[in-house]
Amino acid sequence: YAKTHGRNSYKLYTADLNVQSSEFMALANSLHRALDRHEIRVFYQPLVSLQTGKIVGAEALARWQHPDLGIIMPNKFIPVAEQTGLILRLSEQILFEVCEQMRIWESMGLDYGWIAVNLSGQHFQPDNNLLEIVAKVLKETGIDPLHLELELTEGIIMQNVEFTIALLSDLQDLGVKVAIDDFGTGYSSLSYLKHFPVNALKIDRCFIQDVTSDRHDATICLAIIDLAHSLALEVIAEGVETQEQFQFLKDHGCDHMQGYLFSQPLPTAEFAKMLSDGKSL
Ligand code: C2E
Ligand code: MG
Ligand code: MG
Ligand code: MG
């Protein structure tokens, strides 16, 4: 396989990765080139205050602008990046691009609040120098760390609790904020939660979807909001699509939300325009 695809291709042995689809193999081979050519683009989805209805920040979401296949979504290529180890390079690129972009917005006088960047489990392995990478990107771009938030899932923390807690605490000492993504879908133990050095919980979209019609989902959302606030954490609802969901979350004291009701993830220029237009709900 590797022979027919030239020198830059990865040697993906089916014995190691089980039997991968040919689509996976094709993406794995072109992802390396995609990183060299900066084909991975950052889209920004506004984060909105439930109290004011105004933009308070954004989540950076990766999109692969593939020359032949068009836009490829993260659910397709993030797993490929993880299994090939390219996720570290990819995230470093995204982190750098986001911080450079913040600088540009600052020079335009745009108040973008804070930008959240997703991280993968591999960043939280001892040899991968996440702290040094984040510190370097902040230093090289001159961004105030309080404008940057890092998102990770419960599963990542639970893989290596002691190490991750120490690393998150170092990141907080740098001044960056940390959020637990997809909260409620993982397996973090509540007894650990009080020790996690984090600033925010993001309620997973699966609890928001039927929050106004399913009493169990409503109860879970209220419990997460309560839990977050009693631990002095902010709480953000993901995947808000209707005015009813928005009102429910607002009435129950959730802090922020993101979702198609306000906006889909946008290319840089469109997000900047939304900021300068001062869109609000
Ligand atoms: P996530 O971090 O939980 O991001 C939220 C996802 O929900 C995004 O999907 C977003 O487009 C989608 N979403 C937001 N509002 C709504 C809504 O109202 N309705 C619906 N149906 N969906 C909504 P996306 O961009 O496809 O990303 C999927 C996942 O891929 C992300 O979930 C994240 O886990 C991962 N991902 C994306 N970008 C990156 C990245 O740069 N690095 C890493 N490591 N992972 C990333
Ligand atoms: Mg996220
Ligand atoms: Mg999420
Ligand atoms: Mg996710």
What does this molecule look like?
The chain is of the alpha/beta class and 281 residues long. 45% of the residues lie in helices and 20% in strands. The protein is built from 12 helices and 10 strands. The chain has an 8-stranded mixed barrel, surrounded by 4 helices. Helix 11 (243-251) links the parallel strand 8 and strand 9 (256-257). The longest helix has 21 residues, at 87-107. It is globular. It binds ligand C2E and magnesium ion (MG) (3 copies). One magnesium ion binds next to loops. The site of one magnesium ion has 4 residues, from loops.
List the main descriptive attributes of the protein structure presented here:
281 residues; alpha/beta; 12 helices; globular; disordered N terminus; binds ligand C2E; binds magnesium ion; EAL domain-containing protein
Residues in helix, %: 40-55%
What is the percentage of strand-forming residues?
Answer: 15-25%
Associated small molecules: ligand C2E, magnesium ion
Are there runs of 5+ residues with pLDDT below 50, and where?
A: 1-9
Distance between the termini: 53 Å
Shape: globular
Q: How many distinct beta strands?
A: 10
Mean pLDDT: 92
Encode the helix/strand succession as letters.
HHEEEHHEHEHHEHEHHEHEEH
Give a nutshell description of this structure.
This protein has 281 residues and is α/β, with parallel strands linked by helices. It is globular, with a radius of gyration of 19 Å.
Please describe the topology of this protein.
Layout: H1 14-17, H2 22-36, E1 40-49, E2 55-66, E3 70-72, H3 74-84, H4 87-107, E4 114-118, H5 130-141, E5 148-153, H6 154-159, H7 161-174, E6 177-183, H8 190-193, E7 200-203, H9 205-208, H10 215-230, E8 234-237, H11 243-251, E9 256-257, E10 266-267, H12 268-277
Parallel strand pairs: 2-4, 4-5, 5-6, 6-7, 7-8, 8-9
Antiparallel strand pairs: 1-2, 1-9, 1-10, 2-3
Helix pairs in contact: 2-3, 4-5, 5-7
Bound molecules: ligand C2E and magnesium ion (MG) (3 copies).
